[in-house]
């Protein structure tokens, strides 16, 4: 595998030496789960900063804590201890409702299993996060149509997921993640159900989004070929950052 830190990759942002604004920062974040009275440390004092505009891959073996880390970054879970600041705000001070609102407006999610509503069209699936947005419906619809065009499936806007290939479904999911114009895209094994050619297409789209819009993209993956699209690679092992 080539060194993604030194090799020019598709969509990788240029390292021009300019200072970057921190988007998220974890300080001594620990996550414990208690089962049958036994505490299991899944994350152990993780300290990590990711700047606005970065393209980061988080790697690690099964059980390493990378998915738990993604859930905390995505405001889907809270640390047991430590601090997580998002856009400079201590998320530990926010209510569940405030976290939900911030998550909906500032973070877009792409998952391995797509999670599309089976009875809704591609366009309606893209529009779903906008149901909780203050943006007018006609504006969101136009944006959703533009996003489907951007990811290359405008012609399938009226199709339901069962009528789409896996790669097309992931393109819909990617458009859905972007419809609220978030600061951060979190992708959890986004190529896990795709063949190598389709995986390259999806990662190329994520790279282009990072390059063209400046959105921060964080991908959790076990695949070195997927991780190679990121400029920065973070290895998690036994609940700790083993390499950055």
Descriptive report:
By secondary structure, the chain is α/β, with parallel strands linked by helices. It has one domain: Rossmann fold (3-Layer(aba) Sandwich), CATH 3.40.50. Helices cover 30% and strands 27% of the residues. The strands form 2 sheets. It has a 6-stranded mixed β-sheet with strand order 6-7-8-3-9-10, sandwiched between helices. A 4-stranded antiparallel β-sheet has the order 2-1-4-5, covered by helices on one side. Helix 5 (166-178) runs parallel beside helix 6 (196-213). The longest helix is centred in the C-terminal third of the chain and has 18 residues, at 196-213.
Short summary:
This protein is 30% helix and 27% strand. The protein has 7 helices and 10 strands. The chain has helices at residues 66-73, 96-106, 122-127, 137-150, 166-178, 196-213, 224-227; strands at residues 22-35, 38-51, 55-59, 81-86, 89-90, 107-111, 184-188, 216-220, 232-237, 240-243.
- What is the CA-based Rg, rounded? 18 Å
- Total helical elements: 7
Strand pairing plus helix content: what structural class? alpha/beta
Strand count, sense and barrel status of the largest sheet are: 6 strands, mixed
- Overall geometry comes to globular
H-E order: EEEHEEHEHHHEHEHEE
What is the percent of helical residues? 25-40%
Number of domain units: 1
Provide the CATH top-level class: Alpha Beta
CATH architecture: 3-Layer(aba) Sandwich
Mean pLDDT: 88
State the strand order across the main sheet: 6-7-8-3-9-10
């Amino acid at each position: 595998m080539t060194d993604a830190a030194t090799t020019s990759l598709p969509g990788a942002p240029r390292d021009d030496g300019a200072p970057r604004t921190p988007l998220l920062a974890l300080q001594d974040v620990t996550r414990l789960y208690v089962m049958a009275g036994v505490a299991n440390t899944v994350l152990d004092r993780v300290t990590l900063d990711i700047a606005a505009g970065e393209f980061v891959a988080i790697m690690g073996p099964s059980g390493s804590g990378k998915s738990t880390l993604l859930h905390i970054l995505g405001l889907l879970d809270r640390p047991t201890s430590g601090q997580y600041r998002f856009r400079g705000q201590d998320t530990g001070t926010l209510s569940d409702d405030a976290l939900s609102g911030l998550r909906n407006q500032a973070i877009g999610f792409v998952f391995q299993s797509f999670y599309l509503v089976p009875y809704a069209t591609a366009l309606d699936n893209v529009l779903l996060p906008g149901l909780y947005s203050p943006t007018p419906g006609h504006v969101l619809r136009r944006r959703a149509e533009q996003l489907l065009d951007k990811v290359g499936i405008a012609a399938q806007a009226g199709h339901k997921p069962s009528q789409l290939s896996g790669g097309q479904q992931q393109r819909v999911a990617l458009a859905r993640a972007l419809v609220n114009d978030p600061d951060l895209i979190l992708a959890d094994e986004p190529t896990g159900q795709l063949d190598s050619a389709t995986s390259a297409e999806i990662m190329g789209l994520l790279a282009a989004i990072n390059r063209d819009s400046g959105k921060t993209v964080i991908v959790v993956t076990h695949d070195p070929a997927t991780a190679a699209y990121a400029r920065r690679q973070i290895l998690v092992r036994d609940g700790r950052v083993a390499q950055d």
